[in-house]
Specification:
The complex is a heterodimer.
Chain A (H helix, E strand, L loop, with lengths): L1 H18 L2 H4 L7 E8 L6 H14 L3 E8 L1 H13 L7 E5 L3 H7 L6 H7 L8 H5 L2 E2 L2 E2 L2 E4 L3 E6 H6 L9 H13 L15 H13 L17 H15 L12 H9 L5 E5 L1 H6 L11 E4 L15 E2 L3 E5 L8 H11 L2 H6 L9 H4 L2 H6 L3 H8 L2 E2 L7 H17 L4 H16 L1
Parallel strand pairs in A: 1-2, 1-3, 10-12
Antiparallel strand pairs in A: 3-11, 4-5, 6-11, 7-8, 7-9
Helix pairs in contact in A: 10-11, 10-19, 11-19, 19-20
Chain B lengths: L11 H14 L3 H29 L1 E8 L2 E8 L3 H7 L2 H32 L6 H13 L2 H11 L7 H8 L20 H10 L3 H27 L3 H9 L4 H29 L3 H7 L6 H11 L3 H30 L1
Antiparallel strand pairs in B: 1-2
Helix pairs in contact in B: 2-14, 3-14, 4-9, 4-11, 5-9, 6-12, 9-11, 11-14, 13-14
The chains are: A alpha/beta, B mainly alpha.
């Protein structure tokens, strides 16, 4: 009861803070403003949800017109880049993936939001530190967290039962054993499928697997790449072993996340690690043959890994940022839209769509009612590793993608691939 | 120092001005006036961007935002970007893959395209309907075509092609059609040779997906060429007792030459900068030249290297076009 009152107060205070500077929002006196907003139409909040948010915002600020542009994720980075090249921004508010944080900060494509956040976001500590870390570089906060995406470990309980297992694997050794039994008993041809196509999704799986072996950081504290030692090397050996032993579907090497999700939803594989969207798919009759069979759980880990959550995960956080070439007169309005869209009150209205970035909303009874896996989600979110926040991340990622892909396929021995990966990344830094 | 001009002859600049005056005041005035809009358009959307891109390729060019204004900053490095690109082994790998993609595609287009055109040129029941059906793939947008082939080539059991082949018992396990694995792995020497040329399972799948869409337009263009060949030639050849193959060799091939050359020029240029299908299905997993250029420019923000690769693609296209055009004029003479 107390919690509900707290939520109500929080919601009211957020709405009040958004409406508070009424001088600016006064329809009669406020200047007409057109804000151009860039968002993706592939994952995260749907275009319909975004438009709904936009309508709500425009009710509060009738002088503001929001012009949305929706693009597929692979086109987002180039759109931000070309917009940044223009004297005046083509998009005033842009979606910022955490992997672009370092680049956007170093090249000044988006504005640091520290002053806006300090002044206007009173309950910033309600957003997990790991989420903030994805958008911070050198003390600058480059985006306001909007989307708390992360991966989950999915398994098919019916298939596991057939193999004689009543519980999901908790350790990497148990997971390997379960996959071997599933294959040996011919319950499935391939127990596992993942998105190992030569793309960013492969880096996500690689970082997460390294995390499952104890450390998902691919760079040490001195900023040196460490893919050829410790957990990162074990992760690569693990991925190769699953492929070579026929435990991972060979199609993984050409599969993206939706393809891997389809394999799980079709009942052809017993395990899949994927972003939260698979939770919805696996229990939707029109998209799944495993309705009621899919279970969401924490990731198996090597003994001693992450003693608080006993899981390891990878983040896919996204934030909203203001383009650095947005005219000064538009920036306060751009922030108003960001503050509105990322507010707990607005996120609480769309819990069916995405996991909120605000802890108090994520742990609310409403979320628990809507999402039976809420407790697991919370654990997984608390176990995330962020990919490196570095200026040339996309170049580093391209090297990682190439060598991890080749190591899994077996065209280069694992150790050699890891060594060459490190060598090339060092050359890049030089 | 003064340049001596023979008596009675105007200096070169005066001659040029005189010729310009004659051109603009004479009967060709309308010709030049009507050309102006096209020239302006061409300069604005082709020449200026090309010059700008070339300038970018000669610098360390990046996007920067200073004082709230975005701009492209370029630090002159001369030909360094070209040197870097040409000394990079990945460029040559991409070059090899691009050449394989283009040459195999062209071979299919020349053989299957001519065969389809010949078939469509015959008199048979439902010929008009057939011509319309053949043309449908060309109407499919490129991205839709890519998504469609993604479903066909899905490497799981339920991928359209795998499902079909499994049901027909032509394969025992699903084939990973988009895997950049070597072809003919059972015959090591052949497998190595094709890999050396740039061929792989994924590359051949890309070629099939691309040809499905573009072969019809090639066939229709060649059909237009076939229809310009007077029927009397074939009748005369028949009277002389020439076989169908001989008629094809002596009449069809030479007279189809000009249109075939034009089709080859257009298609070579298109193939060298092929992008959408491969990027949609493979992202950076099959880095042909255009994808390499895109990645450098729009992913890494290195517009200098991206522009340099684009210019190298352009020069390659130009060289090939010159060869075709020279051959075309030679044939016409």
């Amino acid at each position: 009861m107390k919690q509900k009152w707290m939520q109500l107060l929080l919601g009211l205070s957020t709405v009040a803070s958004l409406v508070a500077p009424a001088g600016m929002a006064n329809a009669a006196t406020a200047p007409k403003v057109v804000l151009k907003v860039l968002y993706m139409n592939q994952a995260g909040y749907t275009t319909t949800v975004l438009r709904q948010m936009g309508k709500q915002f425009q009710k509060q600020y009738p002088n503001v017109t929001l012009q949305f542009t929706f693009l597929p994720y692979p086109q987002m980075h180039s759109a931000v880049l070309t917009s940044a090249a223009a004297p005046t921004a083509q998009y005033d508010v842009v979606l910022s993936d955490l992997i672009w944080t370092g680049e956007f900060a170093s090249r000044g494509y988006t504005l640091p939001l520290n002053s806006y956040i300090t002044q206007n976001v009173k309950n910033a500590n309600q957003i997990p530190q790991s989420v903030w870390d994805g958008f911070k570089v050198g003390g600058k906060i480059m985006a306001m967290p909007f989307l708390a995406n992360f991966q989950n470990f999915y398994y098919n309980k019916n298939l596991l039962k057939k193999a004689g297992f009543n519980a999901p694997p908790k350790t990497m050794a148990q997971w390997l054993h379960q996959m071997q039994v599933l294959k040996a008993k011919h319950i499935v041809q391939y127990p596992y499928e993942d998105s190992w196509m030569q793309a960013e999704g492969l880096v996500c799986d690689y970082v997460r697997t390294a995390g499952e072996f104890g450390n998902g950081n691919l760079f040490n504290a001195k900023g040196q790449p460490i893919m050829n030692q410790g957990p990162a090397l074990k992760a690569l050996q693990w991925m190769r072993q699953l492929y070579a032993d026929g435990l991972a579907n060979p199609n993984s090497l050409t599969a993206d996340e939706p393809t891997a999700a389809n394999a799980f939803a079709s009942g052809q594989v017993a395990f899949n690690t994927n972003w939260t969207f698979l939770t919805g798919i696996m229990d939707t009759k029109s998209q799944s043959k495993v309705v009621g069979q899919g279970v969401v759980t924490t990731f198996p880990v090597a003994p001693g890994t992450n003693k608080t959550t006993h899981s390891a995960d990878i983040s896919g956080f996204q934030g909203l940022a203001i383009a650095a070439n947005t005219p000064a007169s538009l920036r306060p309005w751009a922030w108003k839209w960001i503050q509105f869209a990322t507010s707990p009150a607005v996120q609480a209205q769309h819990l069916h769509s995405q996991w909120p970035v605000w802890s108090q909303i994520a742990s609310s009874p409403k979320e628990k009612n809507l999402n039976k896996w809420a407790a697991v989600y919370q654990k997984n979110l608390n176990s995330v590793y962020n990919r490196p926040v570095i200026a040339n991340y996309l170049q580093v990622s391209s090297i990682i993608q190439q060598y991890v892909h080749e190591a899994i396929a077996g065209t280069i021995p694992v150790k050699q691939a890891a060594d060459e990966m490190v060598q090339q990344i060092n050359q890049l830094k030089a | 120092m003064s340049v001596s001009v023979p008596v009675g002859q105007k200096p070169p600049h005066r001659r040029l001005l005189h010729r310009l005056f004659l051109a603009l005041s004479g009967e060709y005035i309308w010709f030049y006036l009507l050309l102006i809009p096209s020239i302006v358009l061409l300069v604005c959307v082709v020449i200026i961007p090309m010059v700008f891109a070339f300038k970018m390729s000669l610098g360390n060019t990046t996007v920067v935002t200073v004082g709230g204004k975005g701009s492209i900053q370029s630090v002159w490095v001369g030909l360094q970007n070209y040197v870097n690109v040409l000394s990079n082994p990945y460029f040559w790998q991409a070059f090899r893959d691009t050449v394989y993609f283009s040459v195999v595609s062209l071979l299919i287009e020349v053989t299957a395209g001519v065969a389809m055109a010949l078939l469509m040129n015959q008199q048979f029941f439902g010929r008009k309907v057939f011509r319309v059906i053949v043309f449908i793939p060309w109407a499919v947008p490129t991205v839709v075509n890519a998504m469609l082939w993604g479903m066909v080539f899905d490497g799981d059991n339920y991928g359209a092609l795998n499902d079909l082949l499994l049901r027909m018992h032509w394969i025992q396990t699903p084939v990973i059609w988009l895997d950049p694995a070597p072809l003919f792995q059972g015959i090591p020497w052949l497998s190595s040779f094709i890999s050396w040329l740039g061929g792989s399972v994924a590359m051949n799948s890309m070629i099939v997906g691309d040809e499905w869409r573009t072969l019809p337009i090639v066939a229709v263009l060649l059909l237009a060429g076939l229809q310009t060949i007077p029927h009397e030639y074939y009748e005369a050849a028949k009277v002389e007792g020439a076989s169908a193959w001989r008629q094809f060799q002596a009449i069809t091939v030479p007279l189809l030459g000009p249109i075939l050359s034009i089709v080859l020029i257009l298609r070579t240029m298109q193939l060298l900068r092929a992008f959408t299908l491969i990027f949609t299905l493979q992202q950076y997993g099959l880095p042909i030249l255009s994808i390499e250029a895109y990645q450098q420019a729009f992913s890494f923000g290195n517009f200098g290297a991206g522009s340099a690769i684009s210019f190298l693609i352009g020069i390659l296209s130009l060289l090939i076009a010159v060869v075709y055009i020279k051959r075309l004029y030679k044939e016409e003479m």
